[in-house]
Amino acid sequence: MRHSILSAALAAWLGAGPVAVAAGEDPYLWLEDVEGPRALDQVRQWNAATAAILEKAPDFETYRTRGAALLNDQARIASPDAVQNDRVANFWQDADHVRGLWRVAGLDGFIAGKPEWRTLIDLDALAKREGKNWVWKGALCLRPAYERCLIALSEGGKDAHLWREFDTVSGQFVPQGFETPVAKNNVSWLDRDTLLIRSDYGPGTLTQAGYGRQVRRWKRGTPLSEAPAVFEGEPTDVSVWSMTDIEEGNTYPLIQRDLSSWTSQFHHLAPDGKRVRSPLPDHAEVEGVLDGRVIARLFGPWKQGGKTYKEGSLVAYAIAPLLEGKTPGIETVYQPSAREAVEEVGLGKQVLYVKLLDNVAGKLVTVTRSAQGRWTPKPVPLAPRSVIQLISVGGPSDTAFVSVEGLTAPESLFAITPGAQPVQVAALPARFDASQMEVSQRFAKSKDGTRVPYFLVRPKGVKGPVPTLMHAYGGFRVATHPTYLSKNPLRLGPLAQFWVEEGNAFVLANIRGGGEFGPKWHEGALKAHRQRAYDDFHAIAEDLLQAGIAKKGALGISGRSNGGLLVGVAYTQRPELYSAVLMGVPLADMKRYSHLLAGASWMGEYGDPDKPEEWAFLSKYSPYQNLKKGAPYPKVMFYTSTKDDRVHPAHARKMAARMAEFGYPFYYYENIDGGHAGSANHNEEAYRAALMLVYLNRELRGIGAPAAP
């Protein structure tokens, strides 16, 4: 075995021992009691034991303070979360505003690089005044005036939140205005005095996944409990949603009924209150409304009106004929090539912005419609082989804001106006010396012969293998982007930058299950085919070792959420490959995942463990059930959040408890706040990144680790 007597003693110190239970019963069900005294006491013991070791490392405080400075740096780009006529809105956090500011500035001044910000909500002041740990969850403003907005606030970062009505003219919350209960709400404006709202209306009104299944029409000044339902789904559905597009005096409300993770029905609400079923197939996804036409993305082929529309394409139909009882014509808006995948769509008044992935590199096109119904794409000239993110679209001239960056290229923000060249609005200063690093894209051959891409960044001119950290996600159509190392959205904080600066390699793996190459790339790892994603991951690890990139015995892996499941599978299947594991806010117990919090909503991705035929394939990789004694497991670092009401913290807790039972050492950090993000602010994120860096140094570089006896 890899672990010494000293390590075995550490494992006993870090974890709870086995519990006497009936044969076949899970001995750690008590850890599913999120805030139960016994469970929280165990969490505190694990947290304290981990902090006692990792916080004492000489570099810990340097990592933490430097990370916080980077994350809170005022020089960050203030990206426009929304374009609201002649202004932009932005949510901003820094060292002086830990919870954040919601603010607005004039559109022209912002594009010119001279924004004059007006603060609308100081979240720190609000939290202090109300005695709440408020975390910002977004704003929804009523078009076309953008004077009244609904503000989403969560206590501690949970998915469950409330909406409160805010007046941007007075800069105050509206007295006796709309305020929802705390729940996993969905709201949309019908008009100034009417909302469509999905919420928790009491017993019998939630789906098995824990989301509301009723959409109600709520009039100002009336009790929500008396609001009439306009739509009700079934208990077996995942959820129902409302969305409303308002264009030049026309309001287009739409109800989305999610039948499973990846299938939905759509219903238009006519002005007289009648529901009219959309002709879209169940695999489609609505992007919004442009000039009275629904824009939708297809995730499978669609036969309609004697034609077949290809999977991955964008299509459109006019709403007015449908509401009149006619069959609307279907138009192809954009058909991606074999190498392309549509990833983001932004809708203006007359222009559609489509962000594509081309062999995992980003590119942007505008698409406009002629009077004859022909949709014409036009590429937007931006840096090739970059990560492009479509941030917001709007305003009188259909302005789009787009960020452009790379692993070693800091982010730049561009304003795009149809018919004009992109204008650089702001650029992030370099956070490190990119001339000392090199970036490449490589491919590994998976078990079934599939070529799987990955990005590699390491010190320039490095000779021989070095300690390497590989990060991946591989699920839910989500592509993994090679974004700038110091600000990457992988929730690793500045970890990747510091890691490479110190002479190591960082890898981003684009395994199946994600959205890098369109629907087929995702579908290739669904349900019974999930092992393909794990085979892709193992293949990249082997390629790194065989190519002499990763140092043998010093290859670490990282993943969050579905990626946390991924790395849990990786080390239980191939422990000899991996020497450190950052397993974040993970799924792990795939036997019970569908009974924990929002887990039932993911059965379309993984399968139903209560069906014997589906548990048959889930059981082969579920990390919790596949842990065994006597295996050469690495010393894992688990991290999660008590207030994660999406992926239950019991997944990480039970993995840790089972590891302790079997005598394996591990590290554990459970932040009380933060929700599924795992941290509620930049300071908490910097603290966690410092813990993880010290852990990687100990396990992959031998820095700060105790000498073997």
TrEMBL record:
<dbReference type="InterPro" id="IPR001375">
    <property type="entry name" value="Peptidase_S9_cat"/>
</dbReference>
<keyword id="KW-0720">Serine protease</keyword>
<keyword id="KW-0732">Signal</keyword>
<keyword id="KW-0378">Hydrolase</keyword>
<dbReference type="GO" id="GO:0006508">
    <property type="term" value="P:proteolysis"/>
</dbReference>
<protein>
    <submittedName>
        <fullName>Prolyl oligopeptidase</fullName>
    </submittedName>
</protein>
<dbReference type="GO" id="GO:0005829">
    <property type="term" value="C:cytosol"/>
</dbReference>
<keyword id="KW-0645">Protease</keyword>
<feature type="domain" description="Peptidase S9 prolyl oligopeptidase catalytic">
    <location>
        <begin position="496"/>
        <end position="700"/>
    </location>
</feature>
<dbReference type="InterPro" id="IPR002470">
    <property type="entry name" value="Peptidase_S9A"/>
</dbReference>
<dbReference type="GO" id="GO:0070012">
    <property type="term" value="F:oligopeptidase activity"/>
</dbReference>
<feature type="domain" description="Peptidase S9A N-terminal">
    <location>
        <begin position="25"/>
        <end position="416"/>
    </location>
</feature>
<dbReference type="InterPro" id="IPR023302">
    <property type="entry name" value="Pept_S9A_N"/>
</dbReference>
<dbReference type="Pfam" id="PF02897">
    <property type="entry name" value="Peptidase_S9_N"/>
</dbReference>
<dbReference type="InterPro" id="IPR051167">
    <property type="entry name" value="Prolyl_oligopep/macrocyclase"/>
</dbReference>
<dbReference type="Pfam" id="PF00326">
    <property type="entry name" value="Peptidase_S9"/>
</dbReference>
<dbReference type="GO" id="GO:0004252">
    <property type="term" value="F:serine-type endopeptidase activity"/>
</dbReference>
<dbReference type="InterPro" id="IPR029058">
    <property type="entry name" value="AB_hydrolase_fold"/>
</dbReference>
<feature type="signal peptide">
    <location>
        <begin position="1"/>
        <end position="22"/>
    </location>
</feature>
